[in-house]
Amino acid sequence: MSPNEAPIPPEVEHDLSVVKRGCDELLVEFEFARKLARSREQNIPLRIKLGLDPTAPDIHLGHTVVLNKMRQLQELGHTVIFLIGDFTALIGDPSGRNTTRPPLTAEQIHENAKTYYAQASMVLDPARTEIRYNSEWCDKLGTRGMIELASRYTVARMMERDDFTRRFKSGVPISVHEFLYPLLQGYDSVVLKADLEMGGTDQKFNLLVGRELQKEYGMEPQCILTMPLLEGTDGVDKMSKSKGNYIGITESPDSIFGKLMSISDTLMWRYYELLSFRSMSEIQALQKQVAEGLNPREAKVALAQEIVERFHSRKAAEDALATFEARFRDGAIPENMPEVNVGKAPMGILKILREAGLAASGSEAQRNVEQGGVRVDGQRVADKALHLNAGTYVVQVGKRKFARVTLTE
């Protein structure tokens, strides 16, 4: 809080604590506290914006870190604007890139956008969600409007962006159209009159551009809430379909459950903070129990059940647990096994067996399949021509050979 500001009322303090849980940064906190107080006084909900470019057809748990926060803001009475960046996806977000991102075609964007809102609605409350597409206003800008918009931001400010600076200093090309991306994302905030814009930590520059453009257009500037990027199941890189370390929210209950059970005990607490709907006091109490001797596996089971129930049902979560426990009870799958990244998908099962060290040769791999000794995620493989897509799988040969295999896109 600024020392010049009035004390924060208790109810606003509560709202702030909800908003700040798990967040990386809230800019500017005293401004947002003022917005929250005014919203309560006037009984007018704040407008909370999240923009996602439909660069892939599916949403994974990493996306839900921000979506969960938006759901919490909905429960505080505010309006969420779920913005599908069908226009900005044509440019490609340069955030964190070392090279120019290849733009998607309009057809790819249209196909991907079909499922985005349906999947986001598995987290958000559709009754309190405003869905928009930024082609509504970006298409209408035209050349004159684009020039006028570009005149409101300087090249010097644009070059403050870390990835642009690195590329410029190392002689890596920067296309002029990449400068348009943060401008258009910022313009979205002007059109939508956003009070708060949310995004991952890699979006901070773009969010700040929106704040500055609102000032240029004579508006009260939006506040910014950045959320951490969730590590994938490998515990190293951020969750990404291209890395094969993701958990899709439309995956089967058994798949979601199994992948969550595969994460490390340390990473589990990170997932609890960013994905669980339990209060922080409950999570801290559970951590204390583990520190005092409770098997971490029990805490991981509780997390896996919570996530499966959220995207499927309570019965599905119970069934997934029963299936998982039966596989261990029967000695089918050990809790610890080698983890191997075998390369790019799609890949044939025979090559996977060789690359993972589960077969010494192609002929041995083929023989194992023909004899019915190969399983993928507990399912027997009957087709030696089987190819697996990007993802992480438990591959088994016979009764004793196992590997957790990852294929990337």
What does this structure look like?
It is a single chain. The chain is α/β, with parallel strands linked by helices and 409 residues long. The protein folds into 3 domains: 10-227, HUPs (Rossmann fold), CATH 3.40.50.620; 253-329, Orthogonal Bundle (Tyrosyl-Transfer RNA Synthetase); 339-408, RNA-binding S4 domain (Structural Genomics Hypothetical 15.5 Kd Protein In mrcA-pckA Intergenic Region, Chain A, Roll). Helices cover 47% and strands 15% of the residues. It contains 16 helices and 13 strands. Strands 1-6-5-2-3-4 form a 6-stranded mixed β-sheet, with helices on both faces. Strands 7-13-12-9-10 form a 5-stranded mixed β-sheet, covered by helices on one side. A two-stranded antiparallel ribbon has the order 8-11. Helix 1 (10-20) crosses helix 2 (29-42), helix 10 (253-262) runs antiparallel to helix 13 (296-311) and helix 10 packs across helix 14 (314-329). It starts with 9 loop residues before the first helix and ends with a strand. 37% of the residues are buried. The mean pLDDT is 87. Its main location: cytoplasm. ATP binds at residue 241. A motif ('KMSKS' region) lies at residues 238-242. One of its GO terms (molecular function) is tyrosine-tRNA ligase activity.
Question: In brief, what are we looking at here?
Answer:
Its EC number is 6.1.1.1. The protein is of the alpha/beta class.
Task: Please give the radius of gyration in angstroms.
Answer: 24 Å
Structural class: alpha/beta
CATH architecture of the largest domain: 3-Layer(aba) Sandwich
Count of discrete domains: 3
Poorly predicted segments: none
Count of extended strands: 13
Strand content: 5-15%
Range of helix content: 40-55%
Number of helices: 16
Q: What do we call the CATH topology of the largest domain? A: Rossmann fold
Average pLDDT number: 87
Order of SSEs: HEHEHEHEHHHHEHEHHHHHEEHHEEEEE
For CATH, the homologous superfamily of the largest domain is named as HUPs
Spatial separation of the terminal alpha carbons: 46 Å
Coarse morphology: globular
The first-level CATH class of the largest domain is given as Alpha Beta
